[in-house]
Each structure stands twice: as structure tokens, then as C-alpha cells.
Amino acid sequence: MASPLPPPRLLSRRRLLGGLLAAAAASTLPAATLARSTTPLTRTLPGTDVALPRVGLGSWITFNVGDDPRLLEACTAVMAAFFAAGGRLIDSSPMYGTSQATIGHALGRLEALDRVYAADKVWTSRRDEGPTQIEASRRAWGVPRFDLLQVHNLRGWEGHLETLQAMKAAGEVRHLGITTSHGRRHDEMEHIMRRAELDSVQLTYNIVDREAEQRLLPLARERGIGVIANRPFQRKRLIRRLAGQPLPPWAAEIGAATWAQFILKFIISHPAITCAIPATTQVEHVRENLAAAREPLPDEAMRRRMAEYVRGL
Ligand SMILES: NC(=O)c1ccc[n+]([C@@H]2O[C@H](COP(=O)([O-])OP(=O)(O)OC[C@H]3O[C@@H](n4cnc5c(N)ncnc54)[C@H](OP(=O)(O)O)[C@@H]3O)[C@@H](O)[C@H]2O)c1
């Protein structure tokens, strides 16, 4: 038997409704929504010919909206704004409640299958349940195949990586990887990165959670593995903490007009990071986040200055 799944994390309904309904109001769908307004900076997933915009889109909690038509349309508006701003990589998991179905709904409404780089996960401790779960996820998204499949939180990684390798060899998935978060299980992640053939790893990295800089990010460069940075805003805790503080005047030198952009530019300017994947319920925040993936980006000296400034607040 599979271990029972915990109940999906839900935002307080009032907060989620507020954000999502504002998103719906800010956008009309789907007419011309996919005309691309800007081109974000990209980074090539190492060892592949896939150039990914350096800001993607997460879906944990924010897209877990059930089957409420208004909320589904609001999430569709968020995804429309994401694609219009040049976004491609969307990340989800069978752990994220109805988020996969929400993404599938929006991809259908927006006719955006050719725009998305579909990143999902396998999340079960039983190897033999992996293929069935992956197929259910694929149907929920409505994609012909996933671009990236990741072993969520390293759960059952040995067996699942064998499954994913076989799927990759058969052309049933393009890329494969593993994930962790909150700075957990970095020793085990390092062990797998040294041993397995991976296209990408996903881990927590932001201007205050920097443990990955010690070993995992250098190792990713050495081994030619892409890195997806999750929890860029510590689930908004970081943004809330900084919100009462002034942006330094020199933030303008790196084109950061808000704290969100300041944080994202710090993350994506690390040479090992392929992209960051902030989640949001708001159209304006998607635009703001994608706009962070533009020149100028900070150099190493500026990155140090940014981290010191935040540490001093
Ligand atoms: N182990 C794993 O595999 C793992 C673990 C954690 C996360 N992840 C992935 O990483 C994604 C991102 O992490 P996360 O969802 O935990 O947290 P996060 O992206 O750090 O934070 C999300 C929060 O940031 C807020 N936000 C987004 N853009 C903003 C902006 N421009 N200004 C102000 N607030 C903004 C959003 O609120 P609004 O709705 O108000 O914009 C949302 O509440 C997840 O959704 C998931 O796809 C994977």
C-alpha cells in the first residue's frame, strides 16, 4: 500500500480568493493573451539544447483551487500573464492537491501546450506506483509527455530514477531530476548528484537560504546539472519581512524596482542557477517576477553587497 497522502495545504480561502479574483479582474481571457510582450533572459539546461527563461512558475498551494470556475479562471489569468511575459517552465507535483488539474485547465483554455516546459514530479515511496502516478499527472496536465520529471523530496529515489531513465531512453520524458527544499537532506542530494545521471536538481536557494552555495551549487556546475531554485520568497515570509525596509538606492543599478525583483535577481545571477520558480496568485506579481529576468543582473561584487545589505536589516 502507498503511504497515505497528507491533506493538500490550502491558503486561507479569503486570502486565496482575494489574490486570485484580483488576478481575474486584471486580465481578459484568452484573446491575444499569448502575444509575447518581452523576452526574458534564458539559461540553457546543461547538456541539452533547451534554453529556459530564468524565472519560471511554481504551483504549490497557489493553484490548489479545486473546481471553482472563478478560481480556475483566475489561475488561467496568472498563466496567461506568465506566457505573455515569455515564461515557460511551470513546476507541479501530485502532492499539490488540484494544482496539476488547474494547470491542465489553463493550458487547454490558452492553447499553450507549445509554450510550456512542463516540470512535474513523482511522489510515492513505492517504485511500482510511479508509472501509474506519472500517467495520472500527465492526464491532469493534458500534455503529450513531461519535459522534466523529478523525484519529489528524494522519496524512493533509487527505484524512481531507474523508471525515469527508462522513460527517457524511450522518449517518454525529456529530462529527469530530483528535488528537496528548506535546506533538508543536502548530504543525500550530493550523494545522488555524484552517482546518478541527472539533468536537473531542485532545491531551496535565496538571498538568506544560501547553504546550497557550499557544496551543491559548485557540484552542479562541475557535473553539468541544471538547478531550479524553489521557495525564492520563503513562501512570502521573506517578502513580508523586507516589505517594511527601504530598497537601497543602488538597487536601481541592477534594475530591481521591488524587493521581489531584488531577491530574484540575486538568485538567478548565481552561475549555477538555471531558473527560480516563484509561485503567485497575482497577475501583477507574475509580470514583476518575469521582469526580474532582464538585464542588468548583479555581478559577484554586487551579489555580495546585496546579501550583506539584507543581512544588516
Ligand atoms: N521539494 C520540492 O520539490 C518543493 C518544495 C517547495 C517548493 N517547491 C516548488 O517551488 C515553488 C515556489 O515555492 P513556494 O510556493 O513554496 O514559495 P515562494 O515562491 O517562495 O512564495 C510564494 C508566495 O510569494 C508571493 N509572491 C510571489 N511573487 C510575489 C511578488 N512579486 N511580490 C510579492 N509577493 C509575491 C505569493 O503571494 P501572491 O499570491 O500574493 O503573489 C506566494 O504567496 C512551489 O510553488 C513549488 O512549485 C518545490
Structure description:
The chain has 313 residues and is α/β, with parallel strands linked by helices. It has a single domain (13-312), classed as NADP-dependent oxidoreductase domain (TIM Barrel, Alpha-Beta Barrel), CATH 3.20.20.100. Helices cover 39% and strands 13% of the residues. It contains eleven helices and nine strands. It has helices at 13-25, 69-84, 99-110, 130-141, 157-169, 186-195, 216-223, 237-243, 259-268, 283-291, 300-312; strands at residues 42-44, 51-53, 89-91, 117-122, 146-151, 173-179, 200-204, 226-230, 275-276. The strands form two sheets. It has a seven-stranded parallel β-sheet. Strand 5, helix 5 (157-169) and strand 6 form a beta-alpha-beta unit. Helix 2 (69-84) runs parallel beside helix 10 (283-291) and helix 6 packs parallel to helix 7 (216-223). The radius of gyration is 18 Å and the shape is globular. The termini are far apart. Residues 1-10 have low confidence and may be disordered. The structure holds NADP nicotinamide-adenine-dinucleotide phosphate (NAP).
